[in-house]
Amino acid sequence: PSVRVHEVVRHRGVRVAPSMVGAVRRAGSALADAGAAVEVLDLPELALGFLMWAEMLTAISVEDYADIVGHGSRMRVRRQVVPWLLRRSPHTAPVLLVSALENLFHKLPQRAPAFARKGEELRDRLADLLGDDGVILHPTYSRPAPRHRTPMLTPLDFVCTSLYSLFGFPVTQVPVGVDARGLPVGVQVVGAPGNDHLTLAVAAEIERRWPRRDTPPLDAAR
Questions:
Q1: Tens of each residue's pLDDT in the chain, 222 residues
Q2: How many CB atoms lie within 10 A of CB 89?
Q3: How far apart are CA 130 and CA 4, in angstroms?
Q4: What does the buried/exposed string (b/e) look like for 100-138 if buried means 16 or more CB atoms within 10 Å of the residue's CB?
Q5: Which of 31, 60, 129, 154 is the most buried (most CB within 10 A)?
């Protein structure tokens, strides 16, 4: 059966490297050659991706996020900044940022629910868009294979994957080549809830049509 493919080549909330965009387009080209209907999907809502993720995560918890990561006693973000800089904090930068954002939401209660509602609306819209035969090709991250600990310098970039996890969408990561430096590059194949078999099958087709050996380095071009 034919598969509908939606390429996300622009993430409005994260600056994505050309090679990661190229990975999405290479995977889309492979699927188009296999007979899939491929089109670009623009999601301006992703500009608020981190805020939606943070508030939705808080909303589904019976406890506040800062209480959960503090193991029952509310974590004080400001007290963790210096230990984190000295690499002595048990928490990562994203955890500290989410906790700080949650504190901000508590001070602005009229705004916080709006982010959760936007996230729920985006989740429902994407589920309807994908249906039983659709997938999204989305950059796995903002850049290829970052050095150890450097993602802490850009902690908001993890929203590339975390939002789909929170939505409950199945995702299969598939390698599609390397960048000009020889670093591995891949793409996420995202499906509607319950369609794990579809994301796996689409990923397998991408791998079959684009062998890893003798594959030219990726850039943003098709």
A1: 689 999 999 888 899 999 999 999 999 999 999 999 999 999 999 888 888 887 787 666 545 555 656 666 667 778 888 887 778 887 777 777 777 766 666 665 555 578 888 999 999 999 999 999 999 999 999 999 888 878 877 878 888 998 899 899 999 999 998 898 989 999 999 999 999 999 999 999 998 876 555 566 776 545
A2: 17
A3: 8
A4: bbbbebeeeeeebeebbebbeebbeebbeebeebbbbbb
A5: 31
Structure tokens at 167: 């939505």
